[in-house]
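Let us work through a complete example step by step.
Step 1: write down the sequence.
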Amino acid sequence: MNFKPLHDRVLVKRMGSEEKTAGGIIIPDSAQEKPMEAKVMAVGTGLRSEDGKITPLDVKKGDIVLIGKWSGTEIKIGSDDLVIIKESDIMGIMG
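Step 2: predict the structure and record it as tokens.
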């Protein structure tokens, strides 16, 4: 993938959600809830302060993070559905 987020932005891929209920009913894509767990695919260089110093991001490529259901901007690169979010929209890193 040839995409590098700028500054404090992070490119994530939402983790798959269940397509069936416990009873075996198939849930159509339009009715599925957006997953909140995502895998970090790429990170920007960091946030630049007013004095020009760059503060590196706390997340790194490969981290599993928790994001809001409606956070970020959804994009498609190749066949992958991805989301670009600011680091401040990430609620935490899964252990």
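Step 3: interpret the result. The mean pLDDT is 84.
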